[in-house]
Amino acid sequence: xxxxxxxxxxxxxxxxxxxxxxxxxxxxxxxxxxxxxxxxxxxxxxxxxxxxxxxxxxxxxxxxxxxxxxxxxxxxxxxxxxxxxxxxxxxxxxxxxxxxxxxxxxxxxxxxxxxxxxxxxxxxxxxxxxxxxxxxxxxxxxxxxxxxxxxxxxxxxxxxxxxxxxxxxxxxxxxxxxxxxxxxxxxxxxxxxxxxxxxxxxxxxxxxxxxxxxxxxxxxxxxxxxxxxxxxxxxxxxxxxxxxxxxxxxx
Length: 251
Hints:
- The protein is an alpha+beta fold.
- Helices cover 43% and strands 19% of the residues.
- The protein has 9 helices and 7 strands; from the N terminus they run βαββααααβααβαββα.
- The chain has helices spanning 10-15, 38-48, 60-79, 86-104, 107-121, 142-157, 161-168, 189-197, 246-249, and strands spanning 5-7, 27-31, 34-37, 123-133, 174-182, 207-209, 212-223.
């Protein structure tokens, strides 16, 4: 296929190294009826300016010539069907995945989350907890927030949580529970954050999760004692057959 290149007066503007003054939506050149705007060339030129070793390629005229040749070769390759070949598609998808990983994965954030998770599973935290159930989609929350804020005052001023529990807990709309010790990954993340970031002996401000508004008091934190996995066999000591002796059978 015969490829045609049409240059506008913009070529001469660029030749005098004043391309930065171009309007970005102006057409710089046309390759076989495909228009290429000035902003595309400017972006590529600025992106590669500090990467090229050959000084001639930093010259706008020289770089424009390279850019034109690149566009011509790209167009020719497409006309020859190279973009539909299996090897090309495989390489393209591999490259696309590599580029996507740079945007989808923030190594600093990931490392911080790993450290946070390790620290949390290394420690257990013991809390008393009050919750007023609220639909996750509810936007009018002032009255519930104030209600939970009142429970916060009680958690601060009353030493006996069992008394608070007996008066508040109904198991449906209001929960007041001694949760005991737990470690990381046992609660929803927002709840876990407050539990681990609240100092021992202090009461958190009310906070919201998908379950409603919570307030909690941190009673203690300790190094995690870990977990044990056990297997269990039991023989009942109540047998209909009196000849069976549980102590002997279990051995």
